[in-house]
Write a structure and sequence with these properties.
Blueprint lengths: L1 E2 L4 E2 L2 H14 L1 H10 L12 H11 L4 H15 L7 H6 L2 H6 L4 H16 L4 H4 L4 H9 L6 H11 L11 H10 L8 H8 L6 H10 L3
Helix pairs in contact: 1-2, 2-13, 3-7, 3-10, 9-10
């Protein structure tokens, strides 16, 4: 695993190791892993962190298609992805963002994110090596970003190996189906059941999502 003087992040070799580990620990999950094939979670680690968090805000309560459309409009307003910096975002006219489909609450969340990065309250570079708990605390301090958003950042941007988002509906349904439960499990039950998948719960979660693809 890659280690930058701090917490580890998954490499492609680690993902293969995780697959073998999970297949040994949980044959039923192993059957799903074999059926789905390669886990591609490391492919998202190159996404620029500001854009990753901005996307998390824009995606809230929207379908993937709608979120992609609005995200594209915001990028266009900024003059392209390479120009979409915190400073550039603050220059954008709120009325133009609203016309692009961004709600006023989300505009305030986006601006709060940009302001925190500019004034140093949110140090994106420091998140690369911060413990998972500190990453969650830093991200949830931003308006509109909760624990789920922080966990998605940990999993898909930082590729941390052992994150299990018990508040994600897809994971809740995945655990329910995987263990043949009549009712949707509570978070404490999910945490207990997922203990068997440590230290690769991120990879296990990625495969549980595939149950509904």
């Amino acid at each position: 695993m890659k280690k930058k003087n701090g917490p580890i992040s998954l490499t492609d070799a680690d993902v293969q190791r995780a697959r073998r580990h999970l297949m040994r620990r949980d044959p039923k999950l192993g059957a799903l892993i074999k059926r789905v094939g390669k886990c591609s979670i490391t492919a998202t680690s190159t996404r620029e962190p500001f854009f990753a968090l901005l996307s998390a805000i824009l995606s809230q309560q929207l379908s993937s298609k709608a979120a992609d459309t609005i995200r594209g409009r915001v990028v266009a307003l900024a003059g392209g992805l390479e120009r979409l910096t915190p400073a550039r975002l603050l220059e954008l006219d709120p009325a133009a963002l609203r016309a692009a489909g961004v709600s006023y609450p989300k505009i305030s969340y986006m601006r709060d994110l940009a302001e925190r990065i500019i004034d140093g309250r949110l140090d994106l570079r420091a998140l690369e090596t911060a413990p998972d708990t500190e990453v969650i605390a830093s991200i949830t301090a931003v308006k509109g970003l909760g624990v789920w958003s922080a966990e998605m950042f940990l999993m898909f941007r930082l590729n941390r190996p052992d994150v299990f988002p018990v508040g994600d509906l897809g994971i809740v349904k995945g655990v329910q189906q995987h263990f043949g439960m009549k009712r949707r499990p509570k978070p404490r039950t999910m945490i207990r059941l997922a203990e068997n998948w440590r230290p690769y719960r991120t990879v296990a979660a990625w495969y549980l999502w595939r149950l509904f693809d």
